[in-house]
Design goal:
Number of helices: 8
CATH class of the largest domain: Alpha Beta
Protein name: 3'(2'),5'-bisphosphate nucleotidase 1
Number of domains: 2
GO molecular function: 3'(2'),5'-bisphosphate nucleotidase activity; inositol-1,4-bisphosphate 1-phosphatase activity; metal ion binding
CATH topology of the largest domain: Fructose-1,6-Bisphosphatase, Chain A, domain 1
Cofactor: Mg(2+)
Pfam family, one: Inositol_P
CATH architecture of the largest domain: 2-Layer Sandwich
Keywords: Hydrolase, Lithium, Magnesium, Metal-binding
Largest sheet: 6 strands, mixed
Bound molecules: adenosine-2'-5'-diphosphate, magnesium ion
Radius of gyration: 18 Å
Strand content: 15-25%
Protein backbone atom coordinates (compact mmCIF):
# COMPACT_ATOMS: atom_id res chain seq x y z
CA UNK A 1 0.00 0.00 0.00
CA UNK A 2 2.56 2.56 1.12
CA UNK A 3 4.33 2.18 -2.21
CA UNK A 4 1.34 3.71 -4.02
CA UNK A 5 1.28 7.51 -4.44
CA UNK A 6 -0.81 9.35 -1.84
CA UNK A 7 -3.51 10.39 -4.32
CA UNK A 8 -4.03 6.76 -5.39
CA UNK A 9 -4.38 5.64 -1.77
CA UNK A 10 -6.83 8.42 -0.98
CA UNK A 11 -9.10 7.54 -3.93
CA UNK A 12 -8.78 3.80 -3.21
CA UNK A 13 -9.88 4.30 0.42
CA UNK A 14 -12.62 6.68 -0.69
CA UNK A 15 -14.05 3.90 -2.86
CA UNK A 16 -14.30 1.45 0.05
CA UNK A 17 -15.59 4.15 2.41
CA UNK A 18 -18.30 5.15 -0.11
CA UNK A 19 -19.33 1.50 -0.48
CA UNK A 20 -19.62 1.13 3.30
CA UNK A 21 -21.61 4.37 3.53
CA UNK A 22 -23.95 3.01 0.83
CA UNK A 23 -24.64 -0.07 2.98
CA UNK A 24 -25.46 2.19 5.93
CA UNK A 25 -27.82 4.27 3.76
CA UNK A 26 -29.69 1.09 2.72
CA UNK A 27 -29.82 -0.16 6.33
CA UNK A 28 -31.37 3.09 7.59
CA UNK A 29 -34.04 2.91 4.87
CA UNK A 30 -34.79 -0.74 5.66
CA UNK A 31 -35.23 0.07 9.34
CA UNK A 32 -37.62 2.84 8.33
CA UNK A 33 -36.55 5.31 11.02
CA UNK A 34 -35.23 8.17 8.91
CA UNK A 35 -34.86 10.69 11.77
CA UNK A 36 -35.50 13.68 9.51
CA UNK A 37 -34.18 17.07 10.67
CA UNK A 38 -35.02 20.31 8.84
CA UNK A 39 -31.77 22.29 8.32
CA UNK A 40 -33.41 25.18 6.46
CA UNK A 41 -35.52 25.91 3.41
CA UNK A 42 -35.74 22.80 1.20
CA UNK A 43 -32.80 21.38 3.15
CA UNK A 44 -33.28 18.08 5.01
CA UNK A 45 -30.92 15.80 6.91
CA UNK A 46 -31.65 12.18 7.84
CA UNK A 47 -30.05 9.54 10.03
CA UNK A 48 -28.53 8.15 6.82
CA UNK A 49 -26.77 11.47 6.06
CA UNK A 50 -25.40 11.59 9.61
CA UNK A 51 -24.26 7.98 9.87
CA UNK A 52 -22.79 7.87 6.35
CA UNK A 53 -20.77 11.03 7.04
CA UNK A 54 -19.44 9.65 10.34
CA UNK A 55 -18.41 6.43 8.60
CA UNK A 56 -16.60 8.21 5.76
CA UNK A 57 -14.91 10.98 7.75
CA UNK A 58 -13.76 8.69 10.58
CA UNK A 59 -12.32 6.20 8.06
CA UNK A 60 -10.48 8.87 6.05
CA UNK A 61 -9.18 10.60 9.21
CA UNK A 62 -7.79 7.35 10.51
CA UNK A 63 -5.84 6.59 7.34
CA UNK A 64 -4.92 10.19 6.43
CA UNK A 65 -4.74 12.11 9.71
CA UNK A 66 -3.16 15.22 8.18
CA UNK A 67 -5.61 15.61 5.30
CA UNK A 68 -8.39 18.18 5.71
CA UNK A 69 -11.78 16.48 5.25
CA UNK A 70 -14.89 18.66 4.96
CA UNK A 71 -18.30 17.02 5.21
CA UNK A 72 -21.71 18.52 4.46
CA UNK A 73 -23.13 17.68 7.88
CA UNK A 74 -20.41 19.56 9.79
CA UNK A 75 -18.47 18.45 12.85
CA UNK A 76 -19.72 15.08 14.11
CA UNK A 77 -18.84 12.49 16.74
CA UNK A 78 -16.23 10.28 15.09
CA UNK A 79 -16.37 7.50 17.68
CA UNK A 80 -18.16 5.05 15.42
CA UNK A 81 -19.06 1.37 15.60
CA UNK A 82 -15.89 -0.55 14.63
CA UNK A 83 -17.69 -2.27 11.76
CA UNK A 84 -18.20 1.12 10.10
CA UNK A 85 -14.45 1.70 9.76
CA UNK A 86 -13.00 0.72 6.41
CA UNK A 87 -9.59 -0.84 6.69
CA UNK A 88 -8.93 -1.83 3.11
CA UNK A 89 -8.26 0.20 0.01
CA UNK A 90 -9.88 -0.83 -3.28
CA UNK A 91 -7.28 -3.12 -4.82
CA UNK A 92 -8.74 -2.98 -8.36
CA UNK A 93 -8.37 0.79 -8.44
CA UNK A 94 -4.76 0.55 -7.24
CA UNK A 95 -3.87 -1.36 -10.41
CA UNK A 96 -4.14 1.92 -12.36
CA UNK A 97 -1.14 4.14 -12.99
CA UNK A 98 -1.06 7.50 -11.24
CA UNK A 99 -0.62 10.44 -13.65
CA UNK A 100 2.90 11.91 -13.27
CA UNK A 101 1.52 15.32 -12.32
CA UNK A 102 -0.21 13.83 -9.24
CA UNK A 103 2.62 11.60 -8.02
CA UNK A 104 4.36 13.97 -5.64
CA UNK A 105 1.62 15.67 -3.70
CA UNK A 106 1.60 15.87 0.09
CA UNK A 107 -1.22 15.61 2.64
CA UNK A 108 -1.20 19.41 3.01
CA UNK A 109 -2.02 19.85 -0.70
CA UNK A 110 -5.25 17.84 -0.38
CA UNK A 111 -8.78 18.66 0.70
CA UNK A 112 -11.44 15.94 0.61
CA UNK A 113 -15.06 17.08 0.16
CA UNK A 114 -17.69 14.64 1.45
CA UNK A 115 -21.38 14.66 0.60
CA UNK A 116 -22.46 11.56 2.54
CA UNK A 117 -25.84 11.47 0.83
CA UNK A 118 -26.59 13.60 -2.20
CA UNK A 119 -30.26 13.74 -3.05
CA UNK A 120 -31.61 13.72 0.50
CA UNK A 121 -34.96 15.11 -0.59
CA UNK A 122 -35.30 12.27 -3.13
CA UNK A 123 -34.19 9.70 -0.50
CA UNK A 124 -37.05 10.74 1.78
CA UNK A 125 -39.53 10.62 -1.12
CA UNK A 126 -38.49 7.22 -2.48
CA UNK A 127 -36.65 8.32 -5.65
CA UNK A 128 -33.85 6.01 -4.61
CA UNK A 129 -31.95 5.82 -7.90
CA UNK A 130 -31.20 9.55 -7.56
CA UNK A 131 -29.26 9.04 -4.31
CA UNK A 132 -25.45 9.06 -4.41
CA UNK A 133 -22.50 9.26 -2.02
CA UNK A 134 -19.93 11.82 -3.19
CA UNK A 135 -16.27 11.98 -2.16
CA UNK A 136 -14.24 14.60 -4.04
CA UNK A 137 -10.49 15.05 -3.83
CA UNK A 138 -8.95 18.43 -4.56
CA UNK A 139 -5.25 19.13 -5.02
CA UNK A 140 -4.06 22.72 -4.71
CA UNK A 141 -7.70 23.90 -4.92
CA UNK A 142 -8.61 21.96 -8.10
CA UNK A 143 -11.01 18.99 -8.25
CA UNK A 144 -8.84 16.14 -9.54
CA UNK A 145 -10.34 12.92 -8.19
CA UNK A 146 -13.78 11.73 -7.25
CA UNK A 147 -16.00 8.85 -6.27
CA UNK A 148 -19.74 8.69 -7.02
CA UNK A 149 -21.39 5.70 -5.35
CA UNK A 150 -25.00 4.87 -6.19
CA UNK A 151 -26.32 2.69 -3.33
CA UNK A 152 -29.64 1.69 -4.92
CA UNK A 153 -28.45 0.99 -8.47
CA UNK A 154 -29.41 -2.52 -9.61
CA UNK A 155 -26.83 -4.25 -11.77
CA UNK A 156 -27.75 -6.69 -14.55
CA UNK A 157 -26.58 -9.56 -12.34
CA UNK A 158 -29.06 -8.52 -9.64
CA UNK A 159 -26.41 -7.05 -7.30
CA UNK A 160 -27.11 -3.72 -5.70
CA UNK A 161 -24.97 -0.57 -5.77
CA UNK A 162 -22.21 0.68 -8.05
CA UNK A 163 -19.20 2.90 -7.58
CA UNK A 164 -17.90 5.19 -10.27
CA UNK A 165 -14.48 6.82 -9.90
CA UNK A 166 -12.53 9.33 -11.91
CA UNK A 167 -9.08 10.89 -11.79
CA UNK A 168 -8.05 13.66 -14.16
CA UNK A 169 -5.35 12.43 -16.49
CA UNK A 170 -6.25 8.79 -15.77
CA UNK A 171 -9.89 8.37 -16.77
CA UNK A 172 -12.91 6.83 -15.11
CA UNK A 173 -14.04 3.40 -13.95
CA UNK A 174 -17.06 1.60 -12.56
CA UNK A 175 -19.41 2.56 -15.41
CA UNK A 176 -19.67 1.18 -18.92
CA UNK A 177 -19.98 1.96 -21.69
CA UNK A 178 -19.34 5.69 -21.59
CA UNK A 179 -21.54 6.62 -24.50
CA UNK A 180 -21.88 10.08 -25.99
CA UNK A 181 -25.38 11.61 -26.05
CA UNK A 182 -27.58 11.24 -29.14
CA UNK A 183 -27.01 13.54 -32.14
CA UNK A 184 -29.87 15.65 -33.46
CA UNK A 185 -31.52 16.14 -30.06
CA UNK A 186 -30.57 18.30 -27.10
CA UNK A 187 -31.42 16.91 -23.67
CA UNK A 188 -30.82 18.88 -20.47
CA UNK A 189 -30.88 17.54 -16.93
CA UNK A 190 -31.75 19.82 -14.01
CA UNK A 191 -33.13 20.01 -10.47
CA UNK A 192 -36.48 18.48 -9.50
CA UNK A 193 -36.67 19.98 -6.01
CA UNK A 194 -34.88 23.39 -6.11
CA UNK A 195 -36.25 25.16 -9.19
CA UNK A 196 -37.05 28.89 -9.46
CA UNK A 197 -37.76 31.49 -12.15
CA UNK A 198 -34.09 32.03 -13.01
CA UNK A 199 -33.41 28.29 -13.31
CA UNK A 200 -36.38 28.07 -15.69
CA UNK A 201 -35.35 31.08 -17.81
CA UNK A 202 -31.91 29.56 -18.43
CA UNK A 203 -33.58 26.29 -19.48
CA UNK A 204 -36.03 28.10 -21.78
CA UNK A 205 -33.18 29.93 -23.54
CA UNK A 206 -31.49 26.63 -24.37
CA UNK A 207 -34.64 25.36 -26.15
CA UNK A 208 -33.97 21.72 -25.26
CA UNK A 209 -35.90 18.89 -26.90
CA UNK A 210 -36.29 17.34 -23.46
CA UNK A 211 -35.68 18.34 -19.82
CA UNK A 212 -34.97 15.59 -17.28
CA UNK A 213 -35.83 16.75 -13.75
CA UNK A 214 -33.94 14.55 -11.33
CA UNK A 215 -32.43 14.91 -7.87
CA UNK A 216 -28.82 15.24 -6.78
CA UNK A 217 -25.69 16.60 -8.44
CA UNK A 218 -24.13 13.14 -8.51
CA UNK A 219 -27.05 11.54 -10.34
CA UNK A 220 -27.15 14.27 -12.97
CA UNK A 221 -23.47 13.65 -13.70
CA UNK A 222 -24.26 9.93 -14.10
CA UNK A 223 -26.86 10.93 -16.71
CA UNK A 224 -24.15 12.84 -18.61
CA UNK A 225 -21.73 9.89 -18.34
CA UNK A 226 -24.39 7.47 -19.61
CA UNK A 227 -25.27 9.63 -22.60
CA UNK A 228 -28.81 10.31 -21.35
CA UNK A 229 -28.34 14.09 -21.31
CA UNK A 230 -26.03 16.55 -23.05
CA UNK A 231 -25.93 19.20 -20.34
CA UNK A 232 -26.64 19.79 -16.63
CA UNK A 233 -27.91 23.33 -16.15
CA UNK A 234 -28.79 24.90 -12.78
CA UNK A 235 -28.81 28.73 -12.82
CA UNK A 236 -29.12 29.26 -9.08
CA UNK A 237 -27.26 29.19 -5.81
CA UNK A 238 -28.01 26.12 -3.66
CA UNK A 239 -25.28 23.58 -4.43
CA UNK A 240 -22.18 23.60 -2.25
CA UNK A 241 -18.57 22.52 -2.72
CA UNK A 242 -19.26 18.93 -1.62
CA UNK A 243 -22.01 18.68 -4.28
CA UNK A 244 -19.68 19.51 -7.18
CA UNK A 245 -16.13 18.43 -6.24
CA UNK A 246 -16.52 14.71 -6.99
CA UNK A 247 -18.92 15.29 -9.94
CA UNK A 248 -16.53 17.79 -11.54
CA UNK A 249 -13.51 15.50 -11.16
CA UNK A 250 -15.31 12.43 -12.53
CA UNK A 251 -16.96 14.26 -15.43
CA UNK A 252 -13.76 16.05 -16.45
CA UNK A 253 -11.71 12.84 -16.13
CA UNK A 254 -14.06 11.55 -18.86
CA UNK A 255 -13.67 14.58 -21.13
CA UNK A 256 -16.66 16.66 -19.96
CA UNK A 257 -16.63 20.10 -18.33
CA UNK A 258 -18.24 21.45 -15.12
CA UNK A 259 -18.20 25.16 -14.21
CA UNK A 260 -20.50 27.78 -12.78
CA UNK A 261 -23.08 29.37 -15.07
CA UNK A 262 -20.63 32.14 -16.11
CA UNK A 263 -18.03 29.59 -17.23
CA UNK A 264 -15.64 29.69 -14.27
CA UNK A 265 -14.31 26.61 -12.52
CA UNK A 266 -14.94 26.40 -8.79
CA UNK A 267 -12.00 26.23 -6.37
CA UNK A 268 -11.90 23.65 -3.58
CA UNK A 269 -9.11 24.78 -1.23
CA UNK A 270 -9.13 24.65 2.58
CA UNK A 271 -10.44 28.18 3.08
CA UNK A 272 -13.08 28.60 0.36
CA UNK A 273 -16.69 29.47 1.16
CA UNK A 274 -18.96 26.43 0.88
CA UNK A 275 -21.80 27.81 -1.31
CA UNK A 276 -21.56 27.53 -5.09
CA UNK A 277 -23.37 30.79 -5.66
CA UNK A 278 -22.66 30.73 -9.40
CA UNK A 279 -24.84 27.70 -10.16
CA UNK A 280 -23.81 24.75 -12.34
CA UNK A 281 -23.21 24.32 -16.07
CA UNK A 282 -21.83 20.95 -17.12
CA UNK A 283 -21.61 19.21 -20.46
CA UNK A 284 -20.90 15.60 -21.38
CA UNK A 285 -17.92 14.42 -23.37
CA UNK A 286 -18.37 15.24 -27.05
CA UNK A 287 -20.75 18.17 -26.43
CA UNK A 288 -19.75 21.71 -27.44
CA UNK A 289 -19.54 23.30 -23.99
CA UNK A 290 -18.82 26.80 -25.33
CA UNK A 291 -21.93 26.74 -27.50
CA UNK A 292 -24.11 25.88 -24.48
CA UNK A 293 -22.40 28.55 -22.33
CA UNK A 294 -22.99 31.17 -25.05
CA UNK A 295 -26.71 30.37 -25.09
CA UNK A 296 -27.17 31.16 -21.38
CA UNK A 297 -28.70 34.66 -21.50
CA UNK A 298 -26.52 37.58 -20.36
CA UNK A 299 -29.35 38.67 -18.08
CA UNK A 300 -29.19 35.31 -16.24
CA UNK A 301 -25.40 35.54 -15.93
CA UNK A 302 -25.63 39.13 -14.65
CA UNK A 303 -28.32 38.31 -12.08
CA UNK A 304 -26.21 35.46 -10.71
CA UNK A 305 -22.96 37.49 -10.81
CA UNK A 306 -24.48 40.28 -8.74
CA UNK A 307 -25.09 37.82 -5.88
CA UNK A 308 -21.57 36.34 -5.85
N1 LIG B 1 -31.39 25.19 -1.95
C1 LIG B 1 -30.67 24.15 -1.57
N2 LIG B 1 -30.50 23.87 -0.25
C2 LIG B 1 -29.77 22.82 0.14
N3 LIG B 1 -29.16 21.95 -0.70
C3 LIG B 1 -29.28 22.18 -2.00
C4 LIG B 1 -30.05 23.28 -2.50
N4 LIG B 1 -30.00 23.23 -3.84
C5 LIG B 1 -29.25 22.15 -4.13
N5 LIG B 1 -28.80 21.52 -3.05
C6 LIG B 1 -27.93 20.34 -2.97
O1 LIG B 1 -27.47 20.08 -4.28
C7 LIG B 1 -27.99 18.83 -4.74
C8 LIG B 1 -28.38 18.98 -6.19
O2 LIG B 1 -29.50 19.83 -6.27
P1 LIG B 1 -30.81 19.41 -7.06
O3 LIG B 1 -31.19 18.04 -6.69
O4 LIG B 1 -31.81 20.45 -6.65
O5 LIG B 1 -30.40 19.52 -8.49
C9 LIG B 1 -29.16 18.53 -3.82
O6 LIG B 1 -29.41 17.16 -3.79
C10 LIG B 1 -28.66 19.09 -2.51
O7 LIG B 1 -27.69 18.21 -1.96
P2 LIG B 1 -28.04 17.26 -0.68
O8 LIG B 1 -29.17 16.38 -1.08
O9 LIG B 1 -26.75 16.54 -0.49
O10 LIG B 1 -28.37 18.18 0.45
MG1 LIG C 1 -28.12 18.24 2.27
MG1 LIG D 1 -25.58 17.17 -2.09
MG1 LIG E 1 -25.94 15.61 1.11
Amino acid sequence: MAQHPLLMRVVAFSITAANRAGEIIREVLNKGELGIVDKGKDDLQTEADRSAQRCIVASLNRHFPKVKVIGEEGAMDLKIPPEWLTNEADSDFLRNKCPDSLKNITEEDLVIWVDPLDGTSEYTQGFLEHVTVLIGVSVNEKAVGGVIHQPFFKTDSGAIGRTIWGVKGMGIGGIEPTTTPPDGRFVVTTTRSHSNALVQSALDALKPDEVLRVGGAGYKIIQLLEGKAHAYVFASAGCKKWDTCAPEAVLEANGGILTDIMGNHYLYGKNVAFPNKGGVLATAKGVNYQEVLNKIPTQVKETISKKL
